[in-house]
Amino acid sequence: MYFDSYATGKRIQHLRKVKGMTQEELAIKLNISDRHLRSLERGEYTPSVDLFVEIVEFFNTTLDHLIMGKSTSEQEELMKKKVSAKLQRMARSLEALAYEL
Predict the structure, then answer these.
(1) What's the average model confidence in pLDDT over 74-79?
(2) Which of 19, 32, 48, 72 has the smallest C-beta neighbourhood within 10 Å, fewest atoms?
(3) Pair 30, 12: CB distance under 8 Å
(4) Helices 49-59 and 23-30 sit at what angle, rounded to 10 degrees?
(5) Contact predicate 37/13, CB 8 Å
(6) Does residue 86 carry a pLDDT above 60?
(7) In terms of Cα–Cα distance, which of 81, 54, 55 is closest to 73?
(8) Is residue 66 within 8 Å of 52, Cβ to Cβ?
């Protein structure tokens, strides 16, 4: 399997559009020029590792999705749900504790 910069660029573009952002707005968030972002979205340029990480964090996605188009596995989704449920229980416990204080 090889890296497809065009497909990666289209995924970045899709994530940006889903979030309702212009290229200029996203470029500002990523601290790059809108010209640079346009090149990324057209697949003319490959992001640095640091920029990949910033994009993944900003869009709350994974490198697997961004680079290879893979969606999260069922196991990952199950793990996310379990962690979310535990966090909700902890939040309720903290609220109850705060109320007692």
Answers:
(1) 66
(2) 48
(3) no
(4) 120
(5) no
(6) yes
(7) 81
(8) yes
